[in-house]
Amino acid sequence: MVRTMEGKHPGYYEAILQLRHPTELVLDFVYAEIERKGIYITKEEEEKNGIDIYLADGPFTRDLGHRLQAKFGGEYLVTAKLYGNKDGRDVYRLTVLFRQAHFAKHDLITYRGNTYIVKTLDKEIILQEEKTGKKIRLKYKEMSAIKKVEA
Q1: Any idea what DSSP says for residue 2?
Q2: pLDDT of residue 51
Q3: Rounded Cα gap, residues 13 and 52, in angstroms
Q4: How many structural domains does the chain have?
Q5: How far apart are CA 76 and CA 131, in angstroms?
Q6: Given this model, what pLDDT does residue 12 score?
Q7: How far is CA 21 from CA 52, 56, 127, in A?
């Protein structure tokens, strides 16, 4: 956990926060949390469908990704890559992906030909069939098969 960059080179980072298809609300939340905690941003890269933010604090980045999923709903994935060895222990760099869902709680959606209402967006997507009331659970990797019904 790095609170200051004292003794570190300007390009030092422990984690990359990858935001895909973020809304302005998500971006505002992310930057407010980074500023509130005083975390150093090494660099930012615009991507085709989002932004990569290089941060100097790995545990904070992991926690931020988890809070994004809980608050806004979307796919959350953490991967670690061995970066080196320091004082006899392995040092990893994290990549935290947050892919925001293109639908929200209470939206009317279609999935595999049936119409559902989105009940919950947390660790899983919980849908309730509009006609029968039956609930189903989906993983976020199935998010691309969900189509929002426009009113």
Answers
A1: -
A2: 96
A3: 12
A4: 2
A5: 31
A6: 83
A7: 12, 23, 22
